[in-house]
Design brief:
heterodimer; A: 251 residues; 69% helix; 0% strand; B: 123 residues; Helix Hairpins
Chain lengths: 251, 123
């Protein structure tokens, strides 16, 4: 069987080599070809939307509808992972770390606790900074949400399982996850009440290079940040919960 | 070395890197004997798309598409593909988490993650 599979694989490779070589030869010259869409947005976004980070302008304004789809893909993937993992363990949670039979629970080393306690709050703060400055400097809800989730993981390493479970309330995360996507959808629907198009940026754009510039982008950014932060935290939480032995009331 | 020489030397390299990532990832998928390894190979295949997208939007001598430190109008790379890659990475990470969750369940039910040793699911 493995041999047949490799023969099939190499047949596929041989079939693909010629088209890929043709595509590589026909690709535009690297770094030296016109970028009409990018140039148009780089020209328009600072002027029309008062936004200095044009990547965020693409994500939340020019291609906001596309980002709404990505947002729901994210929610679907997280929901699927949570259903698969939590479904087998039940809903109830006990704040006890998991143990394997015959293996003790070694305490955390002081160095790990110290570094995590030092770095955790700073990482969280940095995450919020990245989220808030979405329209000004490199940043946004997607990046910032992931940074915040990593800060929460550092809290786990600093405080241990029990402390972490006291901080991380699953219902809050569930609300944050769904609420973030809902906020994005509402930000799209709200302009329609005023007779504008879906996701049309009707709020005041603010001052160029100001943290609150961008109008409606700020709300969409907040929704994305909530959903990404809660989504990654939920996934981390569920995978960490997997190490816990199911309790008798967990069925 | 002049700019023109540099252009000629690297003209096809980014696309070859992307094709190589695609090929290596597919090789890993075809030879995988463990589903966790297979999920990692899928992310390698996916990273080929990041290389293609970012290289399509690149421009020699241009800065980032952030007009905070330098004024609007300075040459900048394409923000559209960067936005695509940005959302793609985040969504890709959660999709990997979903696949890994499936691996966890599979290991619980079947006790193995080797595709060769799995039989079709029965009721």
């Amino acid at each position: 069987m493995p041999r047949l599979r490799m023969v099939l694989f190499w047949c596929g490779v041989l079939l693909l080599i010629a088209p890929i070589a043709a595509v590589v030869c026909d690709m535009p010259r690297f770094g030296d070809h016109p970028l009409p869409y990018g140039d148009a947005i780089n020209h328009d976004a600072p002027r029309d939307r008062h936004v200095s980070n044009t990547v965020s302008a693409v994500n939340f304004d020019y291609r906001g509808f596309d980002t709404l789809g990505e947002e729901f893909m994210l929610v679907c993937a997280v929901t699927g992972a949570v259903v698969l993992l939590r479904g087998s363990r039940g809903e109830s949670v006990t704040a006890e770390p998991g143990t394997l039979p015959g293996r003790g629970l070694p305490g955390r080393s002081d160095a790990a606790v110290l570094i995590s306690r030092l770095m955790g709050p700073f990482t969280l703060l940095f995450g919020f900074y990245v989220v808030l400055h979405a329209t000004v400097t490199p940043g946004g809800g997607f990046q910032g949400g992931v940074v915040i989730a990593s800060g929460l993981l550092l809290l786990f390493m600093g405080e241990g399982y029990r402390g972490w479970r006291r901080i991380m309330r699953t219902p809050w995360l569930d609300v944050c996850e769904g609420g973030g996507a809902l906020l994005f959808a509402l930000a799209g629907l709200a302009p329609m009440l005023t007779g504008s198009a879906f996701l049309q940026n009707i709020l005041p754009y603010g001052k160029f290079r100001d943290m609150l510039s961008g109008g409606l982008m700020q709300i969409e950014n907040a929704g994305v940040a909530c959903a990404v932060m809660a989504g990654f935290s939920l996934v981390l939480l569920e995978f960490l919960e997997e190490t816990r032995e199911p309790e008798h009331d967990d069925t | 070395m002049t700019t023109h020489d540099r252009l000629d030397m690297t003209a096809g390299l980014p696309w070859c890197v992307a094709a190589w990532l695609l090929g290596v990832g597919l090789y890993g998928v075809a030879t995988s004997r463990n589903y966790v390894h297979l999920v990692a190979c899928l992310t390698v295949v996916q990273s080929a798309t990041y290389v293609v997208l970012l290289c399509v939007g690149y421009r020699w001598g241009a800065g980032p598409p952030i007009f905070y430190a330098h004024p609007p109008g300075t040459p900048a790379v394409d923000p559209v593909v960067q936005a695509l890659v940005l959302t793609d990475i985040v969504v890709g990470a959660t999709v990997s988490a979903l696949l890994l969750a499936m691996c966890v369940q599979l290991h619980k039910r079947k006790g193995t993650l080797d595709p060769e040793r799995l039989r079709p699911m029965r009721q």
